[in-house]
Amino acid sequence: MGSEPELRLIERLQALCLDRGVSVAVAESCTGGLVAKLITDLAGSSSYFRGGVVSYANDVKVELLGVPSDLLEAHGAVSAQVARAMASEVRLRLRADLGASVTGVAGPGGGTAAKPIGLTYVAVSGRDGEEVRRFLWNGDRDFNRHASAQALVELLLSRLESPMTATADAASGEPGEAT
Question: Domain 4-79+91-98+120-127+139-168, what fold?
Answer without folding.
Answer: Maf protein (3.90.950)
